[in-house]
Amino acid sequence: MASHHDRGPRLALAPASHSHAAPREIDYAAVQRASRELLLALGADVDGEALLETPRRMADAYTELLTPQAFRPTTFPNEDGYDELIVARAIPFHSLCMHHLLPFHGVAHVGYLPGERIIGLSKLGRVVELFARDLQIQERLTTQIARWLQRELEPKGVGVVLEAEHMCMSLRGVQKFGATTVTSALHGCVRDDARTRQEFLALTTRTSHDQ
Ligand code: ZN
Questions:
Q1: What distance in angstroms lies between residue 93's CA and the mean position of ligand 1's atoms?
Q2: Is 14 exposed, middle or buried (CB count within 10 Å of its CB: 0-12, 13-18, 19+)?
Q3: Could you report the per-residue pLDDT of 144-170, keeping only the tens digit for each?
Q4: What is the per-residue pLDDT across 114-144, written as a single tens digit (0 to 9) for each?
């Protein structure tokens, strides 16, 4: 019969070959044991019925949150010579803050000015997820997405803006509920050309008022 935790050892972090995401393996059984230890240390009744399945659920949750789906980042020749910004706005994402292991979540605006290659719009969301399903800080996540696009597409410019709410800020510490943190990474003419930069930022800063 199937194992009682068939979602468990789904370990492979196998994004496409040319992703430079650091290889990380999840030891599912060890996460379960450590979760039980953590609950014990927190004074929880780990052997009571209510918490019996909790270590397994925690292991499932962390495994899912830290395992990006592999995808093939197919690119196409820019045959029509498209020469304007391509922007995917308000891509929802969530990640885990590496300082507190608490979620942060929000939206990503990802754009580029194509050179010789273009990429399917849906793939921009997959790129965000590829790096978001990791122990992260928002600045690093922003940079990794921008660098990936720069490397894979060699576009004339790249812009990435992330707006996120951090549970470690909302629920503890300074407790600014609903406050968002904005980070950006601009490359090439999105950074250097005033008109392109303006256009990109205008497209991406609209969301907070629209939604
Ligand atoms: Zn944090």
A1: 16
A2: middle
A3: 999 999 999 999 999 999 999 999 988
A4: 999 999 988 999 999 999 999 999 999 999 9
Low-confidence residues of the chain, pLDDT below 70?
1-23, 206-211
Superfamily of 1-70 according to CATH: GTP cyclohydrolase I, N-terminal domain (1.10.286.10)
Cα angle 39-64-19, degrees, rounded to a multiple of 5: 130
Give distance in angstroms: CA of 132 to centre of ligand 1: 14
Q: How far, in Å, from the CA of 2 to the mean position of ligand 1?
A: 37
Which neighbouring-strand residues pair with 87? Answer: 111
CATH topology of domain 75-210: GTP Cyclohydrolase I, domain 2 (3.30.1130)
